[in-house]
UniProtKB/TrEMBL annotation, chain A:
Ranges of residues in domain Methylene-tetrahydrofolate reductase C-terminal-like: 112-205
InterPro entries: DUF5981
Organism encoding this protein: Desulfatibacillum aliphaticivorans
Pfam families recorded: DUF5981
Name of the protein in question: Methylenetetrahydrofolate reductase C-terminal domain protein
Domain of life: Bacteria
PANTHER family: 5,10-METHYLENETETRAHYDROFOLATE REDUCTASE, METHYLENE-TETRAHYDROFOLATE REDUCTASE C-TERMINAL DOMAIN-CONTAINING PROTEIN
From TrEMBL, chain B:
Pathway(s) served: One-carbon metabolism; tetrahydrofolate interconversion; Amino-acid biosynthesis; L-methionine biosynthesis via de novo pathway
Pfam family membership, one: MTHFR
Official protein name in the record: Methylenetetrahydrofolate reductase
GO biological process: methionine biosynthetic process; tetrahydrofolate interconversion
Molecular-function GO terms, alphabetical: FAD binding; methylenetetrahydrofolate reductase (NADH) activity
Keywords: FAD, Flavoprotein, Oxidoreductase
Keyword Flavoprotein: yes
Gene3D superfamilies, sorted: 3.20.20.220
Phylogenetic classification of the source organism: Bacteria, Pseudomonadati, Thermodesulfobacteriota, Desulfobacteria, Desulfobacterales
Catalysed reactions, as listed in the record: (6S)-5-methyl-5,6,7,8-tetrahydrofolate + NAD(+) = (6R)-5,10-methylene-5,6,7,8-tetrahydrofolate + NADH + H(+)
Sequence similarity: Belongs to the methylenetetrahydrofolate reductase family.
UniProt GO cellular component terms: cytosol
Amino acid sequence: MIVASPKPMEEIIDTVKDCKKLLILGCNECVTVCEAGGKKEVGVLASALRMYFAKQGQQIQIDERTLERQCDHEYLEEIRDIADTYDAILSLACGVGVQFTAEKYLSTVVLPGVNTCFLGATEERGMWTERCQACGACVLARTGGICPVSRCAKRVLNGPCGGSTKGKCEISKEVDCAWQLIVDRLTALGKMDEYEQIAPLKDWSTDRAGGPRKVVKEDVQS
Amino acid sequence: MSLNTESKLEKILKAGHLAVTSECGPPRGTSLDKIEEKANLIKDCVDAINVTDNQTSVTRMCSLAACIKIKLMGLEPVLQMVTRDRNRIAMQSDILGAAGFGVNNMLCLSGDHQSFGDCATGQNVHDLDSMQLVQTVRHMRDEGKFLGGGDIAGPPKIFVGAAANPFADPFEVRVPRLAKKIAAGAEFIQTQCIYNVEKFEKWLGIARDRGLTEKVFILAGVTPMKSAGMARYMKNRVPGMDVPDEIVKRLSDTPKEKQADEGIKICIETMQRLKEVKGVAGFHVMAIEWEEKVPELVEGAGLYPRPEVD
């Protein structure tokens, strides 16, 4: 899923302080799972902002709404009637939701309420870790199902580099060395002979380097 | 003796001599005098001088410019290139520039992570990794082609090296990784600083058993310790470094004013021991900001004078 984290309160206050009427718009998908932008977080943020502005003696109407998804036409249409009645919509969806909302409601300011971080997994309640950089050309078949593009600090495709120490990355003792994990996994699978095959130069054109990407499924379109 | 390049380092190694290389870190400024000064300190006791590439991710004068200066002094530079800061276009371009100025040696590295340096919030590139950079140089030299497939007008005749760290983890992958670098096209290897000589010998033994020491020239890396404090720092703080407790103890037990001399002694002992080990083709002396000590180390190890080659 897409993992996001809340923006600092001061930053949010600074972006919404000139509004008279604000809609905080949550999303029921990824940001709900990572507890950054679901219905609960919309409520908590709305209360905090109301208290802050009340203390400042500033009148702001703050409404709450959470959509099933902000990255789909049909759900975003649900606020068609009300969107332009607000000075701003503070979206707690990922960057996709913020942009899609902005694209749909051209006359309303749409602001981000979270920082979109990465594609990750839930390790445990309250902890999410990066697992994929959506590079568009998956190498997991060669690396024991562990991604060096997203999990190695240097994206080394033929690692481990010389900084791997006791299973940890040179950048921090808190970070697993992706290549230690890969070697352990290939060993467990009896596939260490595959390690000695040199990974070809990666085609980054399917990554961000190739410009904005598009997936078209023609059989579904027709 | 078949030579692939004009490299003096290649000639020395292929003639069967124990080679000696050392290194110079370029300045954090524009003065080429510093490079000249450092190179002059070591020029008579080494065969080639590595020029580091923004080592520890701290911004410095570019390695290529410093290499050209060394070349213009009539000396033999080894261009270090990290994949951290350049994409494949920039790397191929710099390789051509280096070869154009007669820089005949390259060491292909991934580089320290930028979080250690003075631009910790910067982007890193890593379009290729170090192994793929080795492949790239060999492809350009041997096929006369760019990665994109086009012909190179005057391919770069460069002797290609890579690094190996026998002390990084996991240990069991270190020889396979060496094999992979050789398969990628590495012709010489410079290793991480050796303090744990037994572990190094174990690594080299496995490499020898696989026949790898017949396929590549391995230059054992050594760095003299200036003090017990430096030994502790390298043991505890430098990733991938293996400094045994007895080295730290030996320096700690030495009076402070004599610790530097003891560090030199340890380094010379290491070189003397490794000289006798089959598969060691020479030494890479990394006397970090202590270049004036390189002659003493090389002489102490019985590696002076340096052989003459055409």
